Structure formats: structure tokens, C-alpha cells
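Incident review: delayed structure delivery

Summary: a single-chain prediction request sat in the queue longer than the usual turnaround. Root cause was a stuck worker, restarted by the on-call engineer. No data loss occurred. The affected request and its eventual output are reproduced below so the record is complete for anyone auditing the incident later.

Affected input:
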Amino acid sequence: MLIRINGAHVLDPGNIDEKKDIIINDHLIEAILDPDENMTKTDIKIVDARKMILVPGLIDIHVHLREPGYEHKETIETGLAAAARGGFTAVCSMPNTNPVNDNSQVTMFIIRRANELGLSKVYPAGAITQKSMGSTLARIKDMKQAGIVAVTDDGKPVEDSNMMQQALEYCKGLKLPVFVHAEQLSVANGGSMNEGPVAKSLGLKGIPNAAESIMVVR
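Output delivered after worker restart:
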């Protein structure tokens, strides 16, 4: 069946930023028309999208799917169902699973499970260090061969500067992006929000800007 999406504000990298009608045939876009442009075909389902925005599938580069190990918080299925519902057709999953995604076996499990579900596409990120503990490099090359697209220790900084340099140089050779959690824990010192008047008014311990800037400069 043909579907015509009428009057949506279309945003597309192909320099489209205006109201258009979209013709879909067998799940594929067949044509992009000016609003109310006539068609000879009559067997067509009309979708009124005049108050809506239509975009290509969105990509979220930081999600927590938590499977394996923390299924009580999120599963690959629930996370991808939510992503698809919100228009995100691809996501990059963080390695904060149990076991940590620091080896090819966990990477392959995540990809295989996502493919079985047939929802949004998953691009896993692997850990920089084993168990995200910051002391020993993870099996990054093996994980890349298994399908990771980046490495990160997610919410944990790699505080050892030599380890961080080793990771960056190694990943440069693999042409693999490194996502960094920029926080010097000794400077953050257990704070819970940005240091300033709001933190003081709430009686909360603040985190100074230096906790982030020191790590970025490094």
C-alpha cells in the first residue's frame, strides 16, 4: 500500500527545511512532493502530519542498555523499543554492563541480541580498560573486530595519565574514537552538582570547574 504523509515540516541533510508531502511505497520513500501536489494514484493511505516535524532516523551516541547483568534497570529490548518509539533508529551503547563490555564475547552478545530483536540498530562502545577500572587496557583490537565503534569507560575517568596516553595512541592506530569522562575525582571530591550559589543554597557539596578542565587540558 502507498502511504502519503501530508504537510509535515521536513528536515533533511539534503537541504530540505520546509513543508513537504512524502510518498512511501513498500516501506521506502518513493517521492518528496510539494504540499497538496496531485497524484494520479488513488489507492493510497493519507497521514495528516501538518503539525508535525519529519526527520530521518535520529542517532543517540550515549545510551545505557545495561544488558547483560543489570536487566532490572534496562534490557536491550526495552531500551531499543524506547529508542524506536522516540524516532532513534540507531544508538551507541555504553559498556557499563556486568560483565563489562571489555572483550569480544560481550560485544558479540550485544550485537547478536539487538539483531534478533530487529528494532533500532546498536553500535556498541567497548571499555577503554579492563572492567573499566583504569589500570589495564581492555582487549580493544578484539572488540573492534567484533563490532565496537568507540571505546569509553563511561562514567569513570581514566585517571592515570600514562594509561590514557597509551589508550589514545593505541586507538589512533586502530582509527577508533575515544569517549572520555572528564572528571578529576580528587578535585570533584564527592560533589553532587556544579559548584556555585545554587549548590550553596541547597546545602549540597559542589564540584569545581577545575575537576573537568584539568582532565580536558591533559
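Verification: The chain has three domains: 2-54, 58-177, 182-218.
Action items: add queue-age alerting; document worker restart procedure.
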